[in-house]
Amino acid sequence: MLNDYEISTIEKNQELHPVLSSLRLVAFAVAIVCSIILVPDAMEKINETRADLVDDSLKIRVVANSNTDADQQLKKEMVQNLTPFFTAIQQNESANLANDDVYAELSNYVDKYYRNENVKIHIGDNLMPPKLQAAMFYPQSTYQSLVLTIGEGRGDNWWCSIFQNVCEASAKKDQDEEKAKDEEKEEPKVTFIVWEWFKKWLG
């Protein structure tokens, strides 16, 4: 026979601390208000800083004569050979130094090695096409820029903005894309004899 046990409950008196509860409520309300006020202001400052970087940074653009393979190859060659000048310009821009000497050296180099290509150099406000570069979108607008136009300037262009390593990264990206295209062209086409026979039989 089972013994009867008396079941008893122990009531715990939970003491409420109205002052502590009120402080928690006030802190929560203050946090919400700060989020509402400060977050939009911080985002606005970030957007303003980004806009300043987009508008104030010097842009460099090299425009090919046309879209023929020869003209595009010449443009890529010129970008590669002029990269040391672009790097020097970048360093001077970062140090807030004048680029007059670099521009003069650049002009002499182009005149010496690309005399027959009718390259025109313009430094100042130029209309730049839109570009997405290094997670930064540049809308089409007039920017302070260095533009080298080869011949008629009717071909696809290359351009970058003077930020850390952007010019070098962009040039390397173009080379990698060109290499990938060449490898894709060289890759042999794989065919299946059964499938080709089946298509021929259906045809």
What can you tell me about this protein's structure?
It is a single chain. This protein is an alpha+beta fold. The chain is built from 5 helices and 6 strands, in the order αβααβββββαα. The strands form 2 sheets. Strands 2-5-1-6 form a 4-stranded mixed sheet. A two-stranded antiparallel sheet has the order 3-4. A hairpin with a 2-residue loop joins strand 3 and strand 4 (136-138). Helix 2 packs antiparallel against helix 3 (100-113) and helix 2 (69-94) runs antiparallel to helix 4 (166-186). The protein is flat and about 110 Å long. The relative contact order is 0.14.
Brief descriptors of the model:
single chain; 203 residues; alpha+beta; two-stranded antiparallel ribbon; 5 helices; 6 strands; 54% helix; 18% strand
Task: Note the topology.
Layout lengths: L17 H39 L2 E5 L5 H26 L5 H14 L5 E10 L2 E3 L2 E3 L2 E10 L6 E5 L4 H21 L6 H10 L1
Parallel strand pairs: 1-5
Antiparallel strand pairs: 1-6, 2-5, 3-4
Shape: flat
Low-confidence stretches: 45-53
Return Rg in Å. 33 Å
- Mean pLDDT comes to 76
**How many strand elements?**
6
Summarize the entry for a quick read.
By secondary structure, the protein is an alpha+beta fold.
